[in-house]
What does this fold into?
Amino acid sequence: MAIAENDPLCARLADGLDEAFPELVVQHQQLVFGIAERVVGDSAAEDVAQEVFVRAYRALGRYPAERVRELRLRPWLGRMTINLARNTLRGRRPTTDLADLADLADHPQSTENGPHQHAQRREERRMWARLLAGLPPRYRLAVALRHVDELSYAELAETLGRPVGSVKSDVHRGIALLRAAYDAEQRGIAQEAS
Amino acid sequence: MTDQHIEAGLRSLRRPAPAGLLDAVLDRLGLGDAYVRVEGPIGPLFVAFGRDGISLVERARDAGDFEATFRAMFGRPVRRIDRAPVLIQRVIDARLWGRRRLSGPPPVDLHELPEFEQQVLRKVLEIPRGEVRPYAWVAAELGRPLAVRAVGNAVARNPIPFVIPCHRVVRSDGRIGEYGAGGPTAKRAVLEAEGFDTTELERLPARGVRFIGSDTTHVYCYPSCRNARRITPRHRVPLRSADVARQAGFRACQVCRPVDAPFRAA
It folds into this structure.
């Protein structure tokens, strides 16, 4: 996989951390919050996300400028978020269960359509959240990072600290399981209807 | 069920981070407040701002002093940056230079001030560029017509001069009055920089003229009110007080809402 060009934001972080840092938060808060939420649940996700950015700021302050310039921010922050979220979970039961994940799907997204379509969208999101939550953890994380957070396979491999081939196969396997679960659900609905 | 279908379903699970996350992070890191050095009408200024808007303005001298003042007022550090964010730059262009109009009052952070001082400064924000109002007007507008001295104190402590135009608040007797950001000379200079004729400002009250009426509309105004400046010379009627004006059949302008000072000294 070709090495991506250095992120221009990294150059700005290296030149003036305090000035550029708010931009780093703006560009990555959705990613960091999203990952945190899927690991620790809705209630603790914001605390985890805050902590990730605070630690990122301190780390960037310690790193030599050359290292900052060459950072790949998404995998770097993604890995930090996963580690921190898992540490947060350690010692207490995860709050995330199927119902929580379905609740996560309740966010208002687009309002350009009528209330009926809106309700239908919400139903669909609930379904996808439920199906995703039903995957074994290994596949769930890989699928979510690839298709919810939209990391590239290279970023995904770096985030998880595993070879690209291995994470690719996890994502494909996860998608196949999702398709099977979806088909099973549709058959169930069809049987109920008949 | 195609892969695209599944991928679109998964993408729909993305949701935005909570609105307060950025502010919370910046607050924890002490990055929530910043300041810039900008050119002002009578020399360079330091302008500090945080998430609630502009919080402190001083004439730019020593950056360390400015940062110390900020810390003393707000109990947190402020960092210097090279360029103001777009929204703040707009406020600077509009309020300091009149280069553009804002759709509403500029964002200013007055939370640290007592309620009355906040009211005074928000009222002062309404005084248009190129016009002045007496301290007594601010007091009357706030429904506290006798609180002229308190208004004077609040205006003198304005932490956001130039943006909140305390230089446009003058004495009812026509004297230009004190100025927190550099004394009367600086005040005169800021007004002149806004295109205001301070000699004219002081000339009328020196002759006992407080208001200008129009003998066609029978409306009276503060002399700098845009309606007063529109009256052609042969229709201008100098008036000594609002009482005299009313007795002569004039009614108060609805734009500048002129009032007499409660006592002659103010």
Q: What stands out?
A: The two ends of chain A are 50 Å apart (CA to CA).
